[in-house]
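This protein record is not my work; I was only asked to verify it. Take the sequence as given and treat only the tokens as open to question. I have pasted the whole thing underneath without changing anything:
***
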Amino acid sequence: MAITENEIRIRFAAPATDEARTAIKARLATAAQELALLVHELVPGSREESEAISAVELALWWAQAGVDRRYVPRAKPLAPADAEAACLAAMAEADIASAPGRL
């Protein structure tokens, strides 16, 4: 993805905080903590354990940054079929935007 001025503004804007974002980030943090604890429990103490836990921490950081930067509240949750359709439409739109001359 090419970096645009708008993308730079999004990346360096102060994080938005509201109840919805806080709740989502808390869910992500809980899931990441569970995974890190599982890695700690199952992987012998080693560089690999440390790297795996660091990767979970980095994944959480990026996920929370995505919530801060890109989250748009919906009026109501989508049904699974609607969510899948919306996802496929967004993927198709992104694919077309990335290669407009291909069609």
Observations:
- The chain has a mean pLDDT of 83.
